Amino acid sequence: MKRFILKRLGLSVITVFLVCVIVFFLTHILPGDVARQYLGRGATEDDLQEFRRLFDLDQPLLSQLFSWISDLLQGDLGQSMQYRGPVTDLLLPAIGYSSKLAAVAFLIIVPISIAGGVISAMNRGKKIDRAITVGGLSASVIPEFVWAILLVLIFGVTFQIFPVTAFPRRGDRDLLTQIWHLVLPSISLLLVLFGYIARITRAGVIEALDSDYMRTAVLKGLSRRKAVLKHVLRNALLPTIAVIASQIPYLIGGLIAVEIVFNYPGFGTILKGAVDARDYSVLQAGVIISSFVIILFQLIADILFAVLNPRIRQKVSE
Amino acid sequence: MSTTPTLEFRDLEVAYTVRGIDREVVRKVSFSIAPGEAYGLVGESGCGKSTAAFAAMRYLPRNGKITGGSILFEGQDIVGMSTHDISVLRRSAISMVYQNPATALNPTIRIGEQVAEVFELQGFSKSDALAQVEQALIKVQIADPTKVMRRYAHQLSGGMAQRVVIAMALASNPRLLVMDEPTTGLDATVEAEVLDLVRKLRQESGTAVLFISHNLGVIRHMCDRVGVLYAGALVEQGATEEIFSQPSHPYTVGLLRCIPRGGLHKNTDRLDTIPGTPPALGTHFSGCVFADRCALVEDKCRTTQPEMVAVGQSHVARCFHTDKAGSMPRAIDTVTVSVSQNPNRATTGTRLLDIDHLSKAFTQDGHAVHVVNDVSLQVGVGETLGLVGESGAGKTTIAKLILGLYGSDSGSHVVLDGKDLAATLGKRDVKDVGAMQIVFQNPDQALNRRHSVTRIVGRAVQKLRGLSADASTERAHELLSGMRVEATLHSARPVQLSGGLKQRVAISRAFAGAPQLVVCDEPTSALDVSVQATILNLLVDLQKQDGTSFIFISHDLGVVRYISDKIAVLYLGRVVEFGESNRVFQGPHHPYTEALLSSVPNIDGSIRKRIPLTGVIPSPSNPPSGCVLHPRCPRMAGSGVEHLCSSAEPALTEVEPGHFMRCHIPLDQLRTVQN
Description:
By secondary structure, chain A is mostly helical. Helix content of chain A is 79%, strand content 0%.
């Protein structure tokens, strides 16, 4: 098992490294000069030279890559072109905010979606099953920013149940208030992800319900409820874990859009600002961080999957 | 004797709702099982036997329901019982064991915990329950219970998993045990052990058993009384001995006749079949359910439903002609096939295939695992070589090596018709590929379900014969018609065909390239006995007509004996015995062959002393020293050559003309101990 984790960890490190290299070359090799792009047509040759010197753009490509990666390893994400300050200062607090939103969203999305899938499977073919399946699928075809706007209009503006922004006013930032402000953004993400996760859960539960070992459990004399709790859920949730992990990229993508709608000073809002200002160093850092998060969660999912599934656990420990 | 039977079916009717229509699968079935009695239900697939078994547990599929009659457990009707009451009954009085023990166990819960659940339901505390599990596992002869308890289902062999399931079923000291094909899919030696165990446990506990099997041999050995089901109706019932010695319903007679039993051989005997096909699910009958396939049918049979008639003491049959059934005319499909002129007939003498020092090692976790070890065999023109042995013996691997699906290790030679073939399929030319083909066990998986039957066969003809598209199609039609797949079915897709027809299509495909040798890997194992008979007849016809040779792999020794000219017995990737079919079956045998043969429950009822193989099949990654069989060998002890057995691997030597054996014990000594 240790070997398996180490191996996976090693692979993840290699992946992160490759992502770094690819991102670096994408921003540096793409047609167009970064300095010209950033400073615009009006810039003089001197301005451009100065800018290149400031951001090391006049160095050979490979040494740029080398110094960039060694900076990365030391936790230095470079200097923001727009704000002329360290990217870390800009991104760290934003990541903190986004993590809060992501955590709240995750805690809302995962239990509700799994519960939906389980209820759906247990009532296979009945009205509630169809409602959950069709409803979930319909909701997921509408993008999260449209949901976000709709939710703000309905629950924020018309009925005024929830705040219209995700960020509480200064002086009013205790934990509960903060969470309360994050509910509406989370729901817009829930609406998009629910259908998919519920559907996968439903399939897993149905497979387990129809399995021979479930039959064994019932024929042993277990009540249906006990049999489901003990024999079905563990087996059924295995595939779901992998699916949820694979949804992390969508969650991050969705966060960006939702943060902007709710005017939340998170990672997404910063990234959007960087795009608007053509701030390449911030963009680079943003892409690296999000890939890092995605790879991290995939790693966690793989390990969890192995821990829960004895068949894989045994294989990997051999 | 107690007057209340343990289980009684009274005019039970079960229906499945398929596309909104109720289809009858069990039709007014009545029988009863006395305390301590073993009652067998036999019949071919789709006859409703499993449905009847699950009905006894009151566990039907989601679309199934009991539409009439009653099921009495110790006099108490369980049909109308509440869910809670039935659960109580299941945890205290009735248990079930079924096919596929591996899937019957939860893959993510340790064995000990799963078995303990049953004891916890009876009110034991968690720790007491675990202590009970140990006893329960010892009872089913699991030698190392604490080790097994810590394992997961996938870490157990099939036989071991079935023991665990049986232990779980017996944990509640049930008064009724329902066994649905409990040994189907297990190796013959394992099957014999499980059956012995069940018989022993029954003697100890006096549990009544409802035993379901398609295998008449198993039923004959396990049951006191037998009921024969056809199309959901009970057509005959009586004491086991009477049913087998004096079958009185034409269906029972037909069923017994199509089995290739000991002594029958393709050269002298053609197998009987049951003409026609079984009725579709839920067909409505105004007369006898078997009328359409019966050799004795009269007008009366089609209009009036026959009643059960007594034909002996407690032996009844649902037929107007019980007196004539035993002597009814044989049903032999005499229509011969016509595949016509094989252009690839072997050219050099009588030897077609020479397998020389065939070996294969797979690499597993960095270690070489020798799955096939120095196998040398020959197949003559128009000859059938049967390969037998337990699973893991290397039968299928050898077949795949011959066909080039796996590349054999260097030093191996596969010589077909005088030509040394390349190790892998990709390096062989089209003619050699066409010359050797395979028929798989499961035609469902072997045929492309998106293509029509004509296209499946036509493409093979096109590839292997190099014919134009039109000519290939025409040839495909010829082949299919030759294999008696009717022209109206040529445009059908595999899913629309029955199992037997699908296998005919698969055989047609194998014959597309006019092969000299066809490997048949368990071609009839998934089929009912009556269909099996027609497929075996077809293969024999093809061989007689074209001189095609076969390599025939089967776990069913009766089938192998019937169709084979020569037999090779494999153990752990080695040939332990090779020779003429009759020689190998009549003996003297290699000790392994002897044990294998003695484990088959035959339908002739002759009681043979079982020669048990102790222990489990060793892993090929770590084979025993000396003779690979020696840790399990039933004849080593007292042979006087024990020191040799455990130190040196015996060579395959010709012990008498044409009869090869890999054993240190002298032939005469084997002959003496085996008589």
